[in-house]
Amino acid sequence: MSESVQLIPGNSLITATPQEGRELAIKMARLIIKVTQPDDEIRGRLRGVYAEDAAMLIAVGQTVATEFATIAAANNYWR
Amino acid sequence: MSESVQLIPGNSLITATPQEGRELAIKMARLIIKVTQPDDEIRGRLRGVYAEDAAMLIAVGQTVATEFATIAAANNYWR
Amino acid sequence: MSESVQLIPGNSLITATPQEGRELAIKMARLIIKVTQPDDEIRGRLRGVYAEDAAMLIAVGQTVATEFATIAAANNYWR
Amino acid sequence: MSESVQLIPGNSLITATPQEGRELAIKMARLIIKVTQPDDEIRGRLRGVYAEDAAMLIAVGQTVATEFATIAAANNYWR
Amino acid sequence: MSESVQLIPGNSLITATPQEGRELAIKMARLIIKVTQPDDEIRGRLRGVYAEDAAMLIAVGQTVATEFATIAAANNYWR
Amino acid sequence: MSESVQLIPGNSLITATPQEGRELAIKMARLIIKVTQPDDEIRGRLRGVYAEDAAMLIAVGQTVATEFATIAAANNYWR
């Protein structure tokens, strides 16, 4: 991992709305995949694999749910 | 991901009842799958796959449970 | 999902005892499977599959553990 | 599930020590498997399967870790 | 499970440093595997399996992360 | 495991920014894999396996998300 890769857009967990928090969760999950597999071509190919695989789509959802739990707590659930 | 896709119906984690919180968890889990695989036809086909696969049904349950944990905390557990 | 399906018996996370909280966790996990696969016959067949598969039984346990964590927090751990 | 099956020994999450909390986590995880597969003979056979499978042993550990997180919180971490 | 097996070294979640907390998480995860598969010879063989399997190594990491979350909370994150 | 292996760089969960917290989560996840499989050559080979496998990349993301949840809580979410 190059330390200079941006892992959290804006370098903050605070967002204005739940919707933006959810978008951040998706981006954070994708950036971990990017830092683990930096090759754009390979990553693009793998995206085609998991986007058509039911089990992997569910697993993507599990990861986003875990990232979102952290973001939601950071924002006091936008109460 | 198009940023304009609605990821949280109502853009809020607050719900009137646990039942509605549970429905929100299901919807949020499904919207992540939708944003990852936007093609309606492919998604419909994959739904047929996981709805008849015991392991995947359990995995769906795991994801909904994680989403619901966040929603329940946001609502102070509807105490 | 039909919104009218009951997803949380009693529409509350509050239970009198840990035992009842555990029973609620099991029911909530099963109701997610039911809402994802509403066909009783298929669900009965799949139950026969996971009840004899060690890996799936462990996965069921993981899901129930996650649901129970939420219920236990809702009840202040019945302290 | 028969509602009368004991799911939490002692019907309490409170234990005297972390060791006892850990033992409770293991028992709670096993009781979910028991309630999902009540047949002693089948369960004994499946135990032989997962006890010799590296991936399943790791998955058992994940489930116990999740149950223990709840028990530890219930006991204020025995601080 | 023999109740007399030590499941948490020192019978406490409190550690002096994050490093020691991490070591405790690893030990706790291993002791669950030991209590589930008490045979040293079989366990040694399985260790050879998961130590050379990428997916299982990742799963070990997931379990340790979950154990560590509990230990870190118990120690108020060593703030 | 040799107890002298560094498992948490800096022996602290406290970081200046979310970005640094994310980098720490990645490092902590990798150090667990390193302590479980200390052989550099084997680990390098396995990295080649999971970096080209969609399901494993998702699983890496799940583990990092769990580590990050702990680090974020330790830092009061850098609010």
UniProtKB/TrEMBL annotation, chains A, B, C, D, E, F:
Gene3D superfamilies: Hexameric tyrosine-coordinated heme protein (HTHP). Pfam families: HTHP. This is Hexameric tyrosine-coordinated heme protein (HTHP).
